[in-house]
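We both want to read discrete structure tokens more fluently, so let's practise on a single case. Would you supply a protein for us yourself, any chain you care to pick? Would you write everything just below, so we can both look at the same thing?
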Amino acid sequence: MTQESPSADPSVDPAQVIRPAATVLLLREDPEHPDDVGPVQVYVIRRVADMVFAGGATAFPGGAIDPSDADATDVQWAGPGPDWWADRLDLDAATARGSVLAAVRELFEETGLLFAGTDAQVVRQFEDHRAGDHTDVPGGWSEDVAEQHRADLAAHRRSIAALLAAERRPVRDDLLRPWARWITPPGRTRRYDTVFFLGLPPVGVEPRLVGTEAEHGDWQTPAAILAAELAGQVKMMTPTRAVLRRLAAAGSLDELRATDLRLHIATEAERVAAGRHA
């Protein structure tokens, strides 16, 4: 997640600046469920406890949009493309483009999973030579190269657009679905206008914790996460709770993948109903 100040201008109150952001609910079916169609699981992380924003909270991979995300006009799109996303997210074209690319970038920075290129490249970001698996993935990266790309993005030494252009990988926006949009209400120290995406990767994807912002990552059902919060075992922010409740009431992964989803923009009444814990 991007950590720089909401505004570089010292005369501007950071609490009054609303930063656009994006986060990804990475989904899969429970692989150990005895039925052919198992319950939907979502990948959640626990943020490092001493972080300034949402320290110790259960959350999803994501962060603020970088200017380079919104300015990336030369990116190739494997899915519907920026105009479709602008319509579905109710945003201008640049912010919609930035939201999708920020979601892709942050997912890569925090889990090592890059939604770009072929299905094989998405599932296997690098050839795992340490495991003795020398399967050839066209355009695949060595582990060192993959980590260097990720580190360069996290340190802002390179933009996601420059990386994808150099590697000739289109953005796999066909693996994303619009889910919700939450805007932090006035009176908070930091305010974000966050788009929540569903991430629907090919079978076989296994995210891993990388970077320094999370101390734990795990696949769980939305119901299990909500029950853990009710029992006082985890803490989460209001938007996280709300999108998990909606996901818990949704259908199977195939239904979510096939449904022509429209963005759900949260109202103040929903915010109150979800519980204003953050």
Remarks:
- The two ends are 18 Å apart (CA to CA).
